[in-house]
Amino acid sequence: MAMYDDELAKAHDMLIAMGRTPGDFGIEMEFMEPDPDGAGMFTVQYLVTILHAKSGKGLRSVGGIGNDWVAHFKAELEEGYFD
Predict the structure, then answer these.
(1) What is the mean pLDDT of residues 68-81?
(2) What residues are paired with 52 via a beta bridge?
(3) In whole angstroms, what is the distance from residue 73 CA to residue 11 CA?
(4) Which residues lie below 8 Å from residue 16, measured CB to CB, with a gap of 6+?
(5) What is each CA distance from 44 to 2, 65, 72, in whole angstroms?
(6) Would you give the DSSP letter of residue 53?
(7) Distance, CA of 32 to CA of 38 (rounded, Å)
(8) pLDDT of residue 39
(9) Which DSSP helix (H) or strand (E) runs through 9?
(10) 61: number of CA atoms within 13 Å, CB side?
(11) What is the pLDDT of residue 40?
(12) CA-CA distance, 35 to 72, in Å (whole number)?
């Protein structure tokens, strides 16, 4: 999926800009079922799971239109969550 691939590249670049090693983070995506109350709008959403190999800490966030998992990931990094 192009949107996720673009976001993954953005997360990779963000990690490098923050002095982190992208290989230290495992990032996986799985599609979520559409919201049945979406009034006919079947917006693609996906669950992003991030695991930091060194600390063993994980983070889950939602991606897709209207969601910014990369910003959530960056905020958690800046607050020291993975340290």
Answers:
(1) 97
(2) 25
(3) 8
(4) 22
(5) 12, 7, 19
(6) T
(7) 13
(8) 59
(9) helix 2-17
(10) 22
(11) 55
(12) 22
Write the CB contacts of 15 (distance below 8 Å, at least 6 apart in sequence): 21, 22, 25, 77
How many Å apart are CA 12 and CA 72, to the nearest integer? 14
3 state SS of 20: coil
Order of strands, sheet of 45-52, starting from the edge strand that comes earlier in the sequence: 25-31, 45-52, 58-64
pLDDT at 80 over 70: yes
What is the pLDDT confidence band of residue 74, given thresholds at 50, 70 and 90? very high
Token pair for 30:
């799985």
Q: What is the pLDDT of residues 40-65, one digit of tens each?
A: 566 788 999 999 999 999 999 999 98
The whole-angstrom separation of Cα 24 and Cα 32 is 26
Cα end-to-end span (Å), the chain = 31
Q: Model pTM?
A: 0.87
